[in-house]
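Below is a filled-in request sheet from our internal design queue. Each sheet records the structural input a requester submitted and the sequence that came back. We keep these sheets so that new team members can see what a complete request looks like end to end.

REQUESTER: design group, bay 2
PRIORITY: normal
MODE: inverse folding
CHAIN LENGTH: 63
BACKBONE (tokenized):
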């Protein structure tokens, strides 16, 4: 959205400011991606650890 506004802006200085803001926002968001991925990995591991006893009971019943 902002990129469209910046590309249509006639005032070059204002367009530069908008593009800089877009780059800063993109950089901040890209910094968050690994943090979010690690958080998801931790949540998945925790869920798996909760499921292990259930799976063990099912395996014993299946024998």
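RETURNED SEQUENCE:
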């Amino acid at each position: 959205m902002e990129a469209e506004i910046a590309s249509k802006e006639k005032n070059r200085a204002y367009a530069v400011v908008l593009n800089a803001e877009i780059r800063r926002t993109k950089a901040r968001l890209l910094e968050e991606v690994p943090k979010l991925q690690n958080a998801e990995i931790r949540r998945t591991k925790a869920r798996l650890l909760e499921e292990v006893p259930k799976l063990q009971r099912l395996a014993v019943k299946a024998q």
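SHEET NOTES:
- Residues 2-62 form one domain.
- The chain is about 90% helix and 0% strand.
FILED BY: M.R.
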